[in-house]
Structures are given as C-alpha cells and as structure tokens.
Amino acid sequence: MGLKIYNSLSRQLEEFSPLTEGHVSMYSCGPTVYDYIHIGNARTALVTDIIRRYLTYKGYVVKLVQNLTDIDDKIIARAQTLGTSPIQLAQANGEAYFEDTQRLGIQPADVHPKATEHIPEMINLIQTLIDKGAAYIVDGSVYYRVNSFNEYGKLSRRKPEDLLAGARVEVDERKEDPRDFDMWKAAKPDEPYWDSPWGRGRPGWHIECSCMAMKHLGETIDIHAGGEDLLFPHHENEIAQSELATGKPFARYWVHVAFLKIDGARMGKSEKNFIFLRDALDKYPAEVIRHFLISAHYRHPLDYSLESLQKSESALKRLRNCLEALKKYEQETPEITDEHNSTSQDAAETDTHLLSAIKTMQAQFTDAMDTDFNTAQAMGSIFSLVSQVNRSLGTSNGISDQIFAQAYKVLSETCQVLGIYTMNAQDVAGTAEILNPLLELLLEIRQNARDQKDWDTSDKIRDQLKQLNIEIQDTHEGSTWKFLSL
Ligand code: AMP
Ligand code: ZN
Predict the structure, then answer these.
(1) What is the pLDDT of residue 345?
(2) Does 436 lie in the same domain as 419?
(3) 353-406 pLDDT, tens per residue?
C-alpha cells in the first residue's frame, strides 16, 4: 500500500502521487511574527516537519517552503504599542521563531521567504490579475474581484450566499462585492510602505502566500499545509488568486491541522489562553512536548493538559530506557532473516517472537504513517515493540545479539522519523531540569566575579557560553541568557 493523504479539497483520502516522480514540493503557512509562537502554532509547524521527515524516509526529495509574514496589521499595531518599528519587531520575533522551533527539534525549511523581500513579485502578480480583469483599484488599494473566479468556494464549499451571510468581512463601501478582498493596501500615515503602480502601500496577507509559494515551488505545488483556521478565507483566496493568474491548479493536496485546545477552547492569541512554546520548553523537555503534540492524529483536535504531558514524559522514559539497553548491540550486523544461531530451544523461541514482533512493528508503523500520517498509531506500534523487547531483555538467555541490533535499528530509525530519541540525554532532561539551574549557577558565579571586579572570569564565562550558542545579556535587573538564533 502506498501513501494516502486526506485532501481537504476533495474531502477524501487520496493516493499520493507527486507531480514529478520522486520529488515533492511543499508549502506551509508560517507565523505572523508579531509575538512568540504558542504551542498551538507549534503543533502545525511540527506536523509539517513530520510530513517532510516521513516523505524523506520514503525516499522522496522534498523541497519545503515556509513563509514568515513580516508585515501585517497585527505587527504594525503591536509595534505601535511597544514603541518600536514594525520591521524591528518582526525581525526579533522571526529570530525567536527559529530559536523556539529549533529547540523543539523542528528542522528548518529549505526556504523561509519573508513577505517584505518579495514586494516586486507581489506587485507583478497583482498587475497580472488587474490585466485579466480579476482585480480593481480604489483609492490606491487593489481588490480581488471574487466574481471573476467561478470556482471560488471550491475548497471551503461555501456557496456565494453563505459567503455573504456568514463571512467575517467588514463592510467596505469601496468593494464591488463584500466577498472581495484586498491584495494591496494603500498606505496609512505612520505605516511602512512600498512604492507601487497604484501608489504607496503594502501587500495583503493572501497575495503573500500565493506569490511566495509559486516563486519558490512553481505554479503547481504538491502539498499545501496550514492550520484549519486558514482554510477559509486564506487558502480559498490563495487558490482564487493563483489559479486565475496561471490557469493551472495551485496545490494538489491540501492538508489542514486541527487545533490544539486548552480547556476545550482553541488555543489562540486572541483567546488569551495560550502558552508560549518557549515557556513550555523551559518547563518540560523538548521531546516530551514533541511526543505530546503528535500523540493524536493531526486531523483530530488535541487537548493540552498537565496530565497529558506527564503521560508523554513517562512513555518517553520507557522508550529511552529500552533504547539505552539495546544500544550496546548497535555494532552487531542486524539480522533480518528468520535464521539465527541460538543456543537453546527457549532462546530460539524468544528469538522468533522478537523477530516477528520487529517485522510486525515495521509493517504497522508504515501502515499508520501511510494512512494520512497517523502519528498516534505509529507511536503505538513503536511502544508495542518496546514492551516486547523489554520482555525479551528480561528473559534473555542467549537471544542472538543480531536480533537486538535489528530491534535497535528499527526503533531508532522510526523514532527519527517522528523526531523523538534524536536528542541527547541532556536535551531530554530538558532546560528545566538541568540547563536552567546550571546557567543560573554560572550567572551567579559571574556576578560574584563582577562584584569583585574579576573581569577575566566574567568575560571568560560570557565568551565561552557564546561559543555554545548561548548569549548572556546584562540588564539593570541582572543578567539573563538566551539561545542565539540559527
Ligand atoms: P498565525 O501566526 O496566527 O498566522 O499562525 C501560524 C500557524 O499556526 C497557522 O498555520 C495557524 O493555522 C496555526 N495555528 C494557530 N493556532 C493554532 C492552534 N490552536 N492549533 C493548531 N494550529 C494553530
Ligand atoms: Zn499562507
């Protein structure tokens, strides 16, 4: 059986077949960098990371593009509140995004395009749509004419009357139709702007993704991912813009990640019920958060709770203990046949059991991941092999070392796909348990040295930590530390 992906466009599980054999182009809507990311945002970023890891594991060459929306109403408003510039705010939060996701073991995309670095391309795309009669200019703003695209609503399956009745579109006298949306916003006083044929202004959010996806991946991309809140209007509008401009399908498989919830409600900035990923990472080991976030299939909502994190923590301990016990067999050549050289009848039977458990696990893991990336079931298959291995280790009387080596190989490879058991023991113990107190101690020693004007010691601590990618910042309230970005 090959890989099947649930496509939000057809609302069906579809056989996956990329446009170019052996290659996958994938675009994932990234953060709007007006603040740190919360663990809900992290769920979507992590699902993208795992899809990419699994496709790579299956032998595809994957190109992943994930944008940063670095100019937007929210960024401008937050910068005004903080008394900083939108560009500086976006720059700082962009760096924080890479820091936080790196700590969670999310591999960087191949390209992380920024909206502000693609203004000329966006202007060209908007001009193409104006030339095709799909857009109109009012007072220096440019609107997309929804009526010009007769497939509008095909992703969200909203009919024009639903769109009109239920749409969260603000009344704007300048629009021909309330469903129309802006692709270019005329500049308001004190806002960043770029010159364009229609006057000074800045791009709308939807055109950013259409433009950056097509620039870096071509007019038709294989997989487009994002959180479920983006399905309408963001992705519907991306389709309308891109397909009308090129006359080609924009994305072939649409993947939408269900919400991370807290106390039954969506975790979100506007709901004010969020937990920043970096705060969670200061309290819990990265692997624990990662395990928790993939403990449900991505299309099912997942509830955040302390009990769930504790469950993940004890599950990971079990996994790590098992792998540590198997590690010593790593050097053995793994045995994949049913033939082995056990010394006793008992051992031979246990061998056969373990060998068949390994094979079953491999089949179940692939089956789970091939069925729309079901990480919950994939994890289940890993843990059932862990139980089996623990039993065999306990009763080991001459089980062939090669079979343990095989179990180690299979377990560590599949864990790698999920991005667990990829970090070393210190990382797993987490910043809360080891790194935080250790750094607090170093900061205290450094402070004592500074009090005694022992600048050599204080500089040595700062410089050597910098080499470890940790920066000390001295403020009036004392010294703090942070990871440097990638
Ligand atoms: P934003 O910065 O709000 O544009 O969100 C960045 C990404 O996180 C988008 O793909 C959102 O759909 C996704 N997202 C936001 N909130 C949640 C949540 N509670 N659970 C899962 N994904 C989310
Ligand atoms: Zn987007």
Answers:
(1) 62
(2) no
(3) 899 999 999 999 999 999 999 999 999 999 999 999 999 887 756 678 899 999
Same domain, 394 and 287: no
Q: Decide whether any atom of ligand 1 lies within 6 Å of the 256 Cβ.
A: no
Ligand nearest to the CA of 38: 1
Per-residue pLDDT of 141-189, as tens digits, reads 999 999 999 999 999 998 777 766 555 556 678 899 999 999 999 999 9
Burial class (CB in 10 A: 0-12, 13-18, 19+), 166: exposed
User: Is 255 near ligand 1, meaning CB less than 6 Å away?
Assistant: no
Ligand nearest to the CA of 41: 1
- Rounded to whole angstroms, the Cα distance separating 24 from 223 reads 8
Report the C-alpha gap between 455 and 458 in whole angstroms: 5
Q: What CATH number should be reported for the domain holding residue 212?
A: 3.40.50.620
Tell me, in angstroms, the distance from the centre of ligand 1 to residue 232's CA: 13
pLDDT at 41 over 60: yes
Q: What is the DSSP string of 68-128?
A: BB-SSHHHHHHHHHHTS-HHHHHHHHHHHHHHHHHHTTPPPPSB--BGGG-HHHHHHHHHH
Considering only CA atoms, which residue is closest to atom 11 of ligand 1? Answer: 227
Residue 186 lies in a domain: no
Domain boundary among 302, 330, 359: 302
Closest C-alpha residue for ligand 1 atom 7: 41
Question: Is residue 48 within 8 Å of residue 225, measured between CB atoms?
Answer: yes
Ligand 2 centre to CA of 210 (Å) is 8
By three-state DSSP, how is residue 381 classified? Answer: helix
- Closest-lying ligand 1 atom to the alpha carbon of residue 29: 10
**Domain count along the chain:** 3
With the most atoms of ligand 1 within 8 angstroms of its CB, the residue from 26, 43, 44 to mutate is 44
- Cβ of 93 closer than 6 Å to ligand 1, yes or no, is no
Residue nearest to atom 1 of ligand 1 (CA): 31
Range(s) of the domain holding residue 56: 4-134+143-155+205-302
pLDDT digits (tens, 9 = 90+) for 243-282: 999 999 999 999 999 999 999 999 998 888 999 999 999 9
Measuring CA to CA, which residue among 247, 255, 121 is closest to residue 183?
A: 121
**Phi and psi dihedrals of 270, rounded to 5?**
-70, -25
pLDDT given at position 485: 37
Same domain, yes or no: 210 and 334: no
Q: What share of the chain in percent tops pLDDT 90? A: 76
**CB within 8 A of 147, min separation 6: which ones?**
176, 177, 179
Q: Tell me: the pLDDT tens digits for 406-460? A: 999 999 999 999 999 875 544 444 444 566 678 888 998 998 999 899 999 999 9
